[in-house]
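Sanity check

After download, print the first record. It should look like this:
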Amino acid sequence: MYTKAAVFTAVVASAAAFQPALRAGVAPKVSAATCTMQAENQGMKQAIAGLVAVPLLFGAQAANAITSQQVRSLTYEEIKGTGLANRCTELAGSNGEITINSANKFKIADLCLEPKSFQIEQEVNAKRKGGVSKEFVDTKLMTRATYTLAGVEGPLTNEGGLKFQEKDGIDYAATTVQLPGGERVPFMFTVKELVAKSTDSAIKPGTEFSGTFRVPSYRSGLFLDPKGRGGTTGYDMAQALPGMEADGAEGQAELAGETNKVFQVTDGSLEFAVNKVDQTTGEWSGVFVSEQLSDTDMGSKAPKKVLIKGIISGRVDTFNGNEDY
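Expected C-alpha cells:
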C-alpha cells in the first residue's frame, strides 16, 4: 500500500509528465502535416473543432483534460481511431462536495482508470554501494490503446466512513510492457472485487480511498501451450516424455511447473485521491496508484511486481433498480 505522499506525488505528475496513449500505446512523433492528414481522413477535423482540438489528440498539449461533456458531444465515427475511447474524462474545475447519507442507496458509476505509467520491480546494480537493490523501473508499453478500465460500478455506502465495492463493468484488461533489457512482462490490469474505504463521509477534494482487489490469471484454464498442455484441457501426442533432471530437485520442480498448469489468483492494492468534484452532476476525478503481480505463465514462472499510476474518474449516482447487486 502506498502512503498519502505517494498518491499526491502522482497528482502532481499527472498534470505534466503523463501523456495520453494513442494507437500504439504512446504519443507518436509525427509531423504537423501527418496529423492534419490523419484528422481529415477520419472526418473529425470539423466535428471536433471547438470541442477537442487536434493538437490535443496528437501534439504536446495531450496532457490537457477531456471532459465528459466533450466526449458526449462526439459520435462513434468521430472518436474511432483517435485514442479518445482509451481516455478517462477529467473535471475542468471543482464545485462543492458529494455527501453520502442513509436516505438513499448510492453507487459509483462510470468508474474509469486510465494508466499513465507502468513500472516493474527489478534488481538493479547499485554502483556506488556496490550491491544489488530492487527498484521500480520504467517500461515501454507494448499493448495498443485497449488497457483502460471503464464502466466499472458498485455500491457506495457510509459506514462511519465511505466504502466502495466493485461489482460490474470492464474491470480487467490484458496488458504487456517491455523492460529496458527487452524482456516482456504480461499482466492482467484489473480492479476485480475491489473494496476501497475512506475515513471521509463525503467525496470532496482531498478524499482518499484505499483497498485491495483480486488479480485473475493472465490466461484461462482452456489455454494450451505449444506442447498442448493446459489447466483444464489438453491433448495427447505421440512423443516421448521430457527427460527428468538427474539431481531430482530443482530440475524436477521446473518440469512440474511447466507440466501441471494452475489458475492462480493473486492480490493487489489500490489507492486513489480525489482532486476535483462537481456537486451538481455527481462527477469526480483524481489520480490512482496500484500495485499488483504480473503473469506466472500458469504457475511456471515467478511473478513480478507491477506499479501502475494514472488518472481515475467516476460519478456518484443513486440506484435505479436495474442493478444485480
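If your output differs, re-run the checksum step. Summary of this record's structure: Confidence is low (pLDDT under 50) at residues 7-62.
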